[in-house]
From TrEMBL, chains A, B:
<keyword id="KW-0479">Metal-binding</keyword>
<dbReference type="GO" id="GO:0051144">
    <property type="term" value="P:1,2-propanediol catabolic process"/>
</dbReference>
<comment type="similarity">
    <text>Belongs to the PduL family.</text>
</comment>
<dbReference type="GO" id="GO:0016747">
    <property type="term" value="F:acyltransferase activity, transferring groups other than amino-acyl groups"/>
</dbReference>
<keyword id="KW-0012">Acyltransferase</keyword>
<keyword id="KW-0808">Transferase</keyword>
<dbReference type="GO" id="GO:0046872">
    <property type="term" value="F:metal ion binding"/>
</dbReference>
<protein>
    <recommendedName>
        <fullName>Phosphate propanoyltransferase</fullName>
        <ecNumber>2.3.1.222</ecNumber>
    </recommendedName>
</protein>
<keyword id="KW-0862">Zinc</keyword>
<dbReference type="Pfam" id="PF06130">
    <property type="entry name" value="PTAC"/>
</dbReference>
<comment type="pathway">
    <text>Polyol metabolism; 1,2-propanediol degradation.</text>
</comment>
<dbReference type="InterPro" id="IPR008300">
    <property type="entry name" value="PTAC"/>
</dbReference>
<comment type="function">
    <text>Involved in 1,2-propanediol (1,2-PD) degradation by catalyzing the conversion of propanoyl-CoA to propanoyl-phosphate.</text>
</comment>
Length: 221, 221
């Protein structure tokens, strides 16, 4: 059927009262492309309270300077230095609040600079990842593991997922248009009731596609 | 027809001498996915003889240290400093031989660091691109234009293009598998008789997909 024929059919169904305008809108709503805003993550560190105190001093607390898209998460004033076997990266932002385990999220390019393997992982999946040394104003911490290249993912609430026909753990693709257009596969849906809708990719992924914080991408199931 | 049935058909055609092994190979060759090796470009500079002399001294000549994939092209010993309105990038490799116009190829991330607009362009298309200052051991050059983020492209000879059913200027996509798999669109075929087969993407594009120099990608028409 051609687009013309489909339009004539829908128009006819409306004109003769077979369908209501609302029904057509509902149908088109479901057919409309699924989209999501992009949040771009640079390299950053999540610290445990123990490692925070080793780096910044006993009883130290993070100083929030900016709220992040996920409820309760913030960028802190504090930064640390990553010390790898091959190189050093200074002024890496600490995000808060503190977590049970310290996790260092770097770009793939950073792993070459630091001299550690690039392990693409979802947040929290630290088993088998390389370690690194963190340096702060009060001391250093030699992490046995915890350096990851963050796997791209989409945060959403369970309701938002259900509304879009998605579920927690589903693997989708995201697509962008434009002069650096393309598609990223293996994007994991992370649905839970403490998440705000946001698609997280890292700086290199964003730059490869010429997109920035707040750009809109299409979700492809 | 199922894969089994097709295989029985081909096997039968071979056994009874309807097709030769060569004919089947030729057919499969055409049906096999089009692939190409990837060459990853970091930031680099092509200099005019005039700018080379301004930066390194009168009568200066580049010192080749490594051949590149394209015939006659080489990485030189020399490096320059990029000085933008917001920041500086040191030790940027000069590629040779000299060209009619100086061209500075940076990553999109670099454009933020330097403070210049990101113009995605094919090599040589410098009109309307931002300028920058180059600094060398002998002096500096204030370029009125010439800073580009290289548009992804595939070099090949005209014969190789014809054999693959491609032509100069054609826009294709390239696809990769793996944990950071995906697709880059708007990849321009550059076919001429001085090119070696190589798909050029930049460091950020390569890192976004977790691929490196020599990785194989599929060309999608």
């Amino acid at each position: 059927m051609s687009a013309d024929e489909i339009e004539r059919l829908i128009r006819g169904a409306l004109d003769t009262g077979i369908w209501s305008e609302q029904q057509v809108e509902d149908l088109l709503g479901h057919a409309a492309p699924l989209t999501v805003n992009v949040g771009v993550s640079g390299r950053h560190v999540h610290l445990s309270q123990e490692d925070l105190e080793a780096l910044f001093g006993a009883g130290y607390e993070l100083t929030p300077i900016k709220e992040l898209s996920q409820p309760g998460q913030f960028a802190a004033k504090e930064t640390v230095t990553l010390v790898g076997p091959k190189g050093v990266i200074e002024r890496v932002r600490v995000l808060g609040p503190v977590r049970p385990s310290t996790q260092v999220e770097v770009l793939r390019g950073d792993t070459f600079k630091l001299g550690v393997p690039a392990c693409v992982r979802m947040s929290g999946k630290l088993e088998g990842t390389p370690g690194i040394t963190l340096a702060g104003p009060h001391g250093t911490v030699a992490l046995p593991q915890g350096v990851i290249v963050a796997a791209r993912h989409i945060h959403m609430t369970c309701d938002e997922a259900a509304k879009r026909g998605l579920h927690d753990g589903q693997v989708v693709s995201i697509a962008f248009g434009g002069e650096r257009g393309g598609r990223l596969d293996n994007v994991v849906v992370r649905a839970n009731n403490t998440s705000a809708l946001d698609c997280h990719i890292d700086t290199e992924e964003a730059n490869a596609f010429g997109i920035k914080n707040g750009s809109v991408v299409e979700i492809i199931k």
